[in-house]
Automatic annotation (TrEMBL):
Membrane-topology annotation of the record: Multi-pass membrane protein
Name of the protein this chain belongs to: Protein unc-93 homolog A
Intracellular or extracellular location(s): Membrane
Keyword Cell wall biogenesis/degradation: no
Species the sequence originates in: Equus przewalskii
Entries under Gene3D superfamilies matching the protein: MFS general substrate transporter like domains (1.20.1250.20)
Keywords associated with the record: Membrane, Transmembrane, Transmembrane helix
The organism's place on the tree of life at top rank: Eukaryota
Annotated family: Belongs to the unc-93 family.
Keyword Zinc: no
Transmembrane segments annotated in the record for this chain: 39-62, 69-88, 94-117, 137-160, 199-222, 257-274, 286-310, 322-340
Length: 373
């Protein structure tokens, strides 16, 4: 096996293990920790910390530690979040959410840098076009990575499904599901019936173990690349915190970058809706928390398959056509979800919507990462 492909697979399976844990936990936050909006607050804190971290941490860590160890250290932040869920409170979830958010930006930046360098290096050696090889590597990565949602969600549904926590849902409660759901409502709904603490601890133990395995896999088997560190040594000896921060904002002078910012911003919004609102207001409210994992498997499986497909066909269709496809699917889903009244008798629809959402999300995940080429 080629050395570059082996490293791509190591990164991919490391992310698979890590996000099997985080993806499953993220989808359950708003359903498990409803009191005073703790679950939603934790998710908001994570992505607020990602925003701050993105301004300066990725470049600093990658220059000092290289891509490999930036990935390893950032993964440890994700494991800390899993541990914080064992005793979920404002004093444990919020600090570990901040830690995870600070580690997320370096993790994704280091991973993108690593795959891009590997792809271009292999393209030079094989006499291929760099852009096409990098597209294929990102396609392989997201095929494996997005399947983490299948395993993480399957684990949560199997664990919570051991002891069904709910009876038939009264019709009057179903009226408050979907777009009619109010996060501040005090009326008893299906989402108020939580699984036992024993089942929650079992699930958290599995997720924490998966995260630890991810750290060990990458730390042991990933080959480090020196390109970034060597280039940074050839430039200035060391840059101060403020110069690094300033250089980030100086990039905003490029109009193209300002326009591109909207893509990851939207990608974050649509993922937040799926993991925070769709899982709580549609799935948990109408079906029960034990169905969250099964429904999200539809999203993850579709996302994984479409990721590798888009990576292959983008060289023929171009990116604009794929973005138009993703936009059309998402707009159609949003309009339909606003009008739809979820009901247990319409079980297939919960899977259809999550599957369509995964088809569109695969566009943002694969194409946003290669705009810099």
């Amino acid at each position: 096996m080629e050395s570059s492909l082996k490293n791509v697979l190591v990164v991919s399976f490391g992310f698979l293990l890590l996000f099997t844990a985080f993806g499953g936990l993220q989808n359950l936050q708003s359903s498990l920790y409803r009191e005073e909006g703790l679950g939603v607050a934790a998710l908001s804190t994570i992505y607020g910390a990602v925003l701050v971290s993105s301004m300066f941490l990725p470049s600093v860590l990658i220059k000092k530690l290289g891509c490999k160890w930036s990935i390893v250290i950032s993964m440890c932040c994700y494991v800390a979040f899993s541990l914080g869920n064992f005793y979920a409170s404002w004093y444990t979830l919020i600090p570990t959410s901040i830690m995870l958010g600070l580690g997320a930006a370096p993790l994704w930046s280091a991973h993108c840098t690593y795959l891009t360098i590997m792809g271009n290096t292999h393209a030079e050696e094989a006499g291929k076009i760099g852009k096409n090889v990098v597209n294929q590597y990102f396609g392989i990565f997201f095929l494996i990575f997005q399947s983490s949602g299948v395993w993480g969600n399957l684990i949560s549904s199997l664990v919570f499904g051991q002891k069904p926590t709910q009876a038939a849902i009264p019709e009057e409660n179903l009226l408050s599901c979907g777009a009619s759901d109010c996060l501040m409502a005090t009326a008893s709904t299906n989402s108020t019936q939580s699984p036992s603490q024993e089942l929650i601890y079992t699930l958290l133990g599995i997720y924490t173990g998966s995260g630890v395995l991810a750290v060990l896999l990458v730390a042991t088997f990933l080959q480090p690349i020196k390109d970034v560190q060597e280039k940074s040594k050839g430039e200035e000896k060391s840059s101060s915190f403020w110069s690094t921060l300033l250089s980030t904002f100086k990039l905003l002078r490029d109009k193209r970058l300002c326009l591109l910012i909207l893509l990851p911003v939207y990608s974050g919004f649509q993922q937040a809706f799926l993991s925070g609102d769709y899982t709580r207001s549609y799935v948990t409210c109408a079906l029960g928390i034990q169905f969250v994992g099964y429904v999200m498997i539809s999203f993850s499986a579709t996302n994984a398959l479409c990721s590798v497909l888009y990576g292959k066909i983008s060289q023929y269709t171009g990116r604009i056509a794929l973005y138009m496809l993703g936009t059309g699917i998402h707009v159609s889903c949003v309009i339909a979800l606003l009008l739809w009244k979820p009901h247990p008798h319409q079980l297939a629809m919960f899977f259809v919507f999550s599957g369509l959402w995964g088809m569109a999300d695969a566009v943002w995940q694969t194409q946003n990462n290669v705009w810099t080429l």
